[in-house]
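Memo to structure team: turn this sequence into structure tokens by end of day. - J.P.
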Amino acid sequence: MKIFTAAQIREADAFTIREEPVSSTGLMERAAGKCAAWLEVQFAPTTPVYIFCGKGNNGGDGLVIARLLLQKGYPVRACILQHSAKASADHTFHLQLLQQQYPACLYEIGAQGDFPVLPAGAVIIDAIFGTGLNKPVEGWMAGIIHQINDQRAIHPVVAIDIPSGLLADSSSLHTPVIQAHHTLSFECYKLAFLLPENAGFTGHVHILPIGLHPDYITQTPTRYHLTDREMIRTIYHPRDPFAHKGTYGHALLIAGSYGKMGAAVLSAKACLRAGVGLLSCHVPQCGYDIMQISEPCAMCVTDEGSTHSAHFHTLPDGATYKTIGIGPGLGTQTATARSLERLLEHYQRPMVIDADALNLLSVYPYLLSRLPQGSILTPHPKEFERLFGTAANDFDRLTLLSQQAVHLHLYILLKGRYTAIACPDGSLYFNSTGNPGMATGGSGDVLTGILTALLAQDYTPKAAVILGAWLHGYAGDLAAEQLSQEAMTATDIITHLGAAFRHVI
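Reply from structure team:
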């Protein structure tokens, strides 16, 4: 699914009006109708509805919703905020309709106006500012936003298109923004909805289709995408019935240290479950028995030169391996850093870099430029910060993420609710699967194993990182559905990988 900027969404509206054709007021009627239908499902006809309408087209949406709900018998009060002497043409058109049919529902609020007293059980609809807002809300309108937020503890708040005050394409930190329980948006996600700093504003986001012209959607380029099953199915490669284990690659996992062999085992199990043909695990001597017993489907090699090795310190021969995954439970000893450096001098195929391997790169940043082009880095936010520095807000962090991916010719997967995948071509993909139950020890090690397996199977790095993130998250969703988010572990993600693959096919 493409993610468009606010300007592109306005272009999509104009394209639809021109090419369908449909009038601008008709398109507004269509969008508001979808919102009214959603509200009818959520709230009984006896629910008092207070719709706060600005003077632009977002307010126009609110006026149409008011009329449609009044037709269904809802007690509605349309509160018109007089923050501007001018109103949009579509707002004026729908206001006149409402005045003709239901004049008693209208209530004006000016700079000195009283905020209405809401009856028990009332729902608040925010239709004040839409995506046309390009600066922070100030003055008495900021006060209105604060007053609505003060009511949210006892009254549900539903934002239309975007919570008022929230900027679609830049940061809204430290500015007044409606804190909605639900956001009803149209056709596609907005970038602001996918970033952690805005989670307290959007609540649950519901994307309502309003029939924007498909030619605009398909023909308009964008850097931003949200993964969905349709996209994943175009990436997935069904297995060849004449294939053999050599067809699906021989991968090497370099992982584990004393006290952290669980990370290596989880990564190995996930790699095998994700379809690698052959897997070898390079572990310290102390982990040999653990790996051999825990995962008999994997081959195991150990560091040479010491029978008491507790961490990675000798370089394996990487020539025979299709790809290498390195980092889970590795440790950050000096000898391990030297071995990582030697590995990067000798191995030139795309790799998966995670966990302690990322921590070593942050200590020895000159190694970043030695990573094979097309390699995949999988940092969580703190690891990313140690690697590339801090950012003032999530939008700036996203810019930094993309810049580093382009500069280093790497794929960087920044973990989060909507994991962001930055590509060397400048594109950004947000993963749509996953849940808070996956915030558990070992989950990242499982992802490393999945990505390593997909690279070994000749998926391109871009396809591997997009598909791998989706499968990892979807397996987590299936695990949470069966076990609850609280009870699931990283092992459960591995257990549900097979079902996740079946949902792709």
